[in-house]
Amino acid sequence: MSTPSATRSGFRLYRVLRLRPSLAAIAAVLVFLWCVSRFYQPDTGFSSLISIGDILEETKVTSLRQTPHHVYEKSAGYDGAYYVQLALYPTLDNPELTKAIDNLPYRAKRILFCWAAWLLGGGQPGAVVQAHALLNVACWLALAWVLLRWFPPNTWENFLRWAFVLFSHGLCMSVRHSLVDGPSLLLVALALRWLEDGRRGAGAVTLALAGLGKETSLLAGAGLEVDWRAPRSWWRPAATLLMSALPLFLWMGYVRWKFGPADDPGMGNFTLPFVGFAEKFRYAWREATGPDGGQLAWASLVTIVALAVQWTFFVLRRRPGERWWRVGAAFALMMTFLSTPVWEGFPGASTRVLLPMTLAFNVLVPRGRRWLPVLLAGNLTVAATIFEYSPPHEFFALKGDPTTQTLIRVKPLKGWYAPEQHLAQQWRWTTGAAELRLTNAADVAVTVTIRGLVSAADGECRIRIGSGDRLLWGESAGVKPREFRFGLTLAPGETRLSFTGDQPAKKIGADPRELAFRIANLEIVVPPAGMRP
């Protein structure tokens, strides 16, 4: 016979076990916020989430050019770089937009979240840029709450479905690059929630907003109830769908009036059934199983497999009477026609384009262990998510005194390729001669220790590191990394370091760049204030 104390202990344990999915959900949200926080930079805020590349530097609108923001080197950036400029001028009245944005009439259709960023930023360019960068983050948090309707955290299986949607590659890609797909999914989920509650008006309005955010969101109109046995009642869902699409049509008319027809209305994103998917699968398989196949290539392959599992689920388990099945099937049908521009890349844009299908899949897969393999296989896109939350990195780090960042600033100048990273290694390749500018903001000289690793692209190369006419370090290095270390006194103002090699740059393997040597894990160590001269 159990004692009262044992009974109380057992009850407490039972409560803890029941709360564990809820605690795991809270932990997942905290992990997400931590991942996002790593993109914050003191000078540019969260703008590194927008993926603005330096290749488009000359065509950016003046307002963005004059606003502090992170710029990715040797990169054209990603679509968020266009949408942030639309957010700065959501009425489309700035003539600079025609040069700043490729295919402006096409991108300008997706105006809702640009208006949202403009309103949240009060029309002030700096605030608008930050609002645009964080809009996806806010929508992710809101979606995490909305999804509790279908996945209450009372079982581990519900937690898995909830987490699979929130950490799907498509949704995290939208957050990482400040795209329209994540916020649009939030509105689709809200629209389906209102429709399930019988609030057709609220559902239609929300669906209309989703269409203004991304036109393909209107496919979620398949969730409207239709009584196929009563043709006379068809007019009502048809009218609801038409009214939901009307704001998008009106805005498209305004855009056409401003800029004329789009050179590419987006039809290049579609092709004959399965042609794009088959091409992507063959390419992903070849890359993953080839001699150079790495983690990203395998993640891309399993992502394609996951989408195929979702598509197969809707084809083989037909439930046209279920609202969520119709929504998922509509996007599964669209998937069959997607062409190369949507599939290309590692893993590519397909995961974010098909986000409503992913959500419908997780809602509909039956509960229980029997269906668990299907649930897991259809959510393998999370394998690629980890690659989306790598914040911008440099090959150098400031160490030592906590006030280092206020005293010393480091900026790569000519001769460097874009920074690269793998695990604990961070580096930049050079063309054979490169410069680094160190700025001492203090009013006194600061002596620092500089250390790092150097390696040649091929064979032996004698590396010289100097400042002006002064040689600071000079020895031979091979393909295997070699450590260097030297001291340097930085006078107030700028000091330039030069890195030169005695061997010409050359192409190595399939890399299209001409490489000479690389500098890795560079550290500038500043002594405590009491130890400075």
Describe this structure in words.
The protein is α+β, with helices and mostly antiparallel strands and 533 residues long. The protein is 45% helix and 16% strand. It has helices at 4-37, 62-65, 80-88, 97-100, 104-107, 112-120, 125-146, 156-166, 169-177, 181-196, 200-213, 235-259, 275-289, 295-316, 323-337, 340-343, 350-353, 355-364, 372-378, 404-407; strands spanning 396-400, 408-412, 420-422, 425-429, 433-440, 446-456, 461-467, 470-477, 482-490, 493-501, 506-507, 514-515, 517-526. The strands form three sheets. Strands 1, 3, 4, 6, 9 and 13 form a six-stranded mixed β-sheet that branches. β3 and β4 form a beta hairpin. α3 (80-88) packs across α6 (112-120) and α11 packs parallel to α12. The longest helix has 34 residues, at 4-37. 40% of the residues are buried.
Number of domains: 2
Mean pLDDT: 89
* Count of separate DSSP helical elements: 20
Estimated structural class: alpha+beta
Report how far the terminal alpha carbons are from each other.
77 Å
Shape: elongated
Relative strand content: 15-25%
Q: What is the number of strand segments?
A: 13
Q: Regions with pLDDT < 50 over 5+ consecutive residues? A: none
Gyration radius, rounded: 27 Å
Report the sheet with the most strands, covering strand number, pairing sense and barrel closure: 6 strands, mixed
Residue share in helix: 40-55%
Please describe the topology of this protein.
Elements: H1 4-37, H2 62-65, H3 80-88, H4 97-100, H5 104-107, H6 112-120, H7 125-146, H8 156-166, H9 169-177, H10 181-196, H11 200-213, H12 235-259, H13 275-289, H14 295-316, H15 323-337, H16 340-343, H17 350-353, H18 355-364, H19 372-378, E1 396-400, H20 404-407, E2 408-412, E3 420-422, E4 425-429, E5 433-440, E6 446-456, E7 461-467, E8 470-477, E9 482-490, E10 493-501, E11 506-507, E12 514-515, E13 517-526
Parallel strand pairs: 1-13
Antiparallel strand pairs: 2-5, 3-4, 4-13, 5-10, 6-9, 6-13, 7-8, 7-10, 11-12
